[in-house]
């Protein structure tokens, strides 16, 4: 959340649409909390090494989506994907 606060002015200059700026930080946190209980379950049901690697790749894919975004909506979707992958990575 705090890292996103530093880049919000630049994102507003590039993409505009100030109404969506809070969702950039919130999308990661919401996805992280939404998948938290799921993350705990799959961490104990499957081989932790492969669960970690798979969700690390999900996190990297989300970072790629956010980094290559051409709109603020794509940045938000990428951050959501990062939150999903990050929730599992934090639990393993």
Alpha-carbon Rg, integer: 14 Å
Oligomer status: single chain
Average of per-residue pLDDT values: 85
Query: Can you count the helices?
Result: 5
Beta percentage is: under 5%
Termini Cα gap: 22 Å
Helix/strand class? mainly alpha
Describe the sheet with the most strands.
none
Number of strands: 0
Specify the helix fraction band. over 70%
3D shape: elongated
Low-pLDDT sequence parts: none
The succession of helices and strands, N to C, reads HHHHH
Could you walk me through the main structural features you see in this protein, from its secondary elements to its overall organization?
The chain is mainly alpha-helical. The protein contains 5 helices and no strands. The chain has helices at 2-15, 21-34, 36-45, 48-67, 72-91. Helix 2 packs parallel to helix 5, helix 3 (36-45) packs across helix 5 (72-91) and helix 4 runs antiparallel to helix 5. The radius of gyration is 14 Å and the shape is elongated. The protein starts with a helix and ends with a helix. 26% of the residues are buried. The mean pLDDT is 85.
């Amino acid at each position: 959340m705090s890292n996103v606060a530093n880049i919000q002015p630049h994102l507003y200059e590039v993409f505009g649409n100030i109404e969506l700026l809070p969702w950039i930080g919130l999308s990661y946190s919401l996805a992280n909390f939404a998948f938290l209980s799921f993350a705990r379950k799959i961490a104990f049901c499957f081989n932790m090494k492969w669960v970690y690697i798979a969700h690390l790749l999900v996190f990297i894919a989300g970072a790629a989506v956010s980094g290559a975004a051409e709109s603020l909506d794509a940045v938000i979707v990428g951050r959501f994907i990062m939150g999903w992958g990050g929730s599992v990575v934090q639990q393993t």
